[in-house]
Specification:
The chain is 36% helix and 39% strand. It has four helices and nine strands.
Length: 152
């Protein structure tokens, strides 16, 4: 079980392979991608800034909590830092367990807690040339209220 911050592209296949376990019947993977819009504005790219010492410590704590709360075999999460283009993977969470319910629950727990607890900020670069820093904790709150009305 591990959490890390990466300055290079996330190798999705390697992340999935790192949690492989023949005792598990379930693998749940969440990939957070850079999309072309946010709050009605056209986004061209994003830039993530991470306070790495605290993010790594708190990320490891979240992974440990997921392992304690849910019957999972392994959890791996990698979050990007730096400039990302549209469709790049910004974050990946991989969870394996004997059964799917625990894997789904743990995966949702990890991504929700990361978004609300880690010191990660994003700078949105819009197509009109304007850029703004956004604290991702605000993104988590918006996503949680949207999630209450629809299932992703």
């Amino acid at each position: 079980m591990r959490f890390s911050v990466s300055t290079t592209a996330i190798d999705v296949a390697a992340a999935r392979k790192s949690v492989a376990d023949t005792s598990c019947g379930a693998l749940v993977v969440f990939e957070g991608w850079i999309r072309d819009h946010n709050e009605g504005r056209q986004v061209e790219r994003l830039e993530y800034e991470v306070y790495k010492p605290l993010a790594e410590k708190e990320g490891a704590r979240i992974i440990e909590e997921a392992g304690t709360r849910f019957a999972v075999s392994n959890v791996v999460c990698i979050h990007r830092e730096g400039l990302l283009e549209l469709s790049d993977v910004a974050v990946i969470v991989c969870v394996t367990s004997a059964h799917r319910a625990a894997a789904f629950d743990a995966c949702r727990y990890v991504i929700d807690e990361l978004k609300s607890r880690l010191p990660i900020w994003k700078k949105e670069h819009y197509v009109n040339g304007i850029s703004e820093w956004v604290n991702c904790q605000n993104c988590a709150r918006a996503g949680q209220s949207a999630g209450a009305h629809r299932h992703d």
